[in-house]
Amino acid sequence: MPAIRYEALDPAGRKVSGVLQADTPRQARSQLRAQGLLPVSVVDHARAPERRRLAWARGISAAELSLLTRQMATLLESGLTMEQTLNALIDEAALPLTRDVLNGVKAEVTAGLSLAGALGGYAKSFPDFYCALVHGGEESGALPQVLMHLADYLDARQALKQKTGLALLYPVLVSVVAIAIVTGLLIYVVPQVVQVFQQSRQSLPILTRALIASSDFLRAAWPYLAVGIIGILLAARALLKHAGPRRHLDKLLLRTPWLGALVRGVNTSRFASTLSILVGGGVPLLSALNSGARVVTNTVMREAIELAIERVREGASLARSLGETGAFPRLLIHLVASGELSGKLQQMLERAARLETQALERRLTVFLTMIEPLMILLMGGVVLMIVLAILLPIIEINQLVH
């Protein structure tokens, strides 16, 4: 439910304010009257002008979020209250966007909303897994420890993202340049060259005729192709917002030979890291599993965690419950079983997350090592076909002359 900010008068005529959960402002007024309060102002905070302005903002950067999380953990651990911590963070914030977001969070926390609930209103700055971990830390009373582990996790995640981004930069640049060159040849160069062959009225090779047909089609249909591609992408995006199609896609991704292992590894690492942080912070296992399910992006794997939660609630061990789903790697199952037997579940989960991250890095390295020469060969082959299509008629003309 959205957070509704209100101002009201109590039976003694004193003004009171706060935040309550209601679907609509009208429902909020009914709740206030049921409590004996006279509503004065009821505002859906999600539709407030400040929140609408922040909704269009890009959100706090990953590096800024990591630093902010570490500072919050340090301040809370030193004994400051949540309000004092937020005030200190607002004073230290270097960017206006960060100050605006923290001011909004502080307003909702001061009005009575939990920190996780307040952060959830700023999805572009605080992802779902972040709010899930904060919620688990609040429930266990170990919020500073959870935030410190969360900051370490954000640093590691950002380092992996930067490494992957730098590795992908070269193949992306090669692809963009190659596509631009091929498109330019087909639209501008080829028509001028083949015009000479068409005027000579000679029989053209099949490769040259195919090149001319491709060039004519691309010149005539490129606006429709651009609109069609954009339309397909928008339709796919809208379709994937529904649970059914999204589940089918996630299931297909997991069954894809190489990509499935990558998707499974990413979600397993994230799930194990989340559980490790929460269990280490003293969060009960069922609550930790519920929070861990929220950080998994693959629908099939999230449903598997929900089934495991039911089995754990019935008394089964975590390793057996996860193993019965068949959605997670055997490495995770074995390490969880070892952790449950030895009483070191947090350490085993942390090790599982680390091993899955290392495996993920190896898969990405192999993929990038293979994709670079393949892309160069593919684009070189396309350019070679264009050159041959132009040269073959010239060679035939020379043969006829001699």
Task: Give a written overview of the molecule.
Among the domains are: 3-47; 59-126, Receptor-associated Protein (Up-down Bundle). Helix content is 77%, strand content 5%. The protein contains 16 helices and 3 strands. The model has no long low-confidence stretch (mean pLDDT 81).
Say which CATH homologous superfamily of the domain at 59-126 is assigned.
Answer: Type II secretion system (T2SS), domain F
Q: Helices and strands, in N-to-C order?
A: EEHEHHHHHHHHHHHHHHH
**Total of helices:** 16
Identify the strand order in the major beta sheet: 2-1-3
Distance between the termini: 85 Å
The average pLDDT is 81
Work out the strand percent: 5-15%
Helicity, as a percent range = over 70%
Number of strands: 3
Q: What Rg do the Cα atoms give? A: 29 Å
- Sheet having the most strands: 3 strands, antiparallel
Do you know the CATH architecture of the domain at 59-126? Up-down Bundle
Name the poorly predicted regions: none
Annotate the secondary structure layout.
Blueprint lengths: L2 E7 L5 E7 L3 H10 L3 E7 L4 H7 L6 H16 L4 H11 L3 H15 L4 H5 L8 H13 L2 H58 L5 H34 L3 H13 L1 H24 L4 H11 L3 H15 L4 H8 L4 H13 L2 H57 L1
Antiparallel strand pairs: 1-2, 1-3
Keywords:
single chain; 402 residues; mainly alpha; Receptor-associated Protein; 3-stranded antiparallel beta sheet; 16 helices; 77% helix; 5% strand
Compact description:
The chain contains 16 helices and 3 strands.
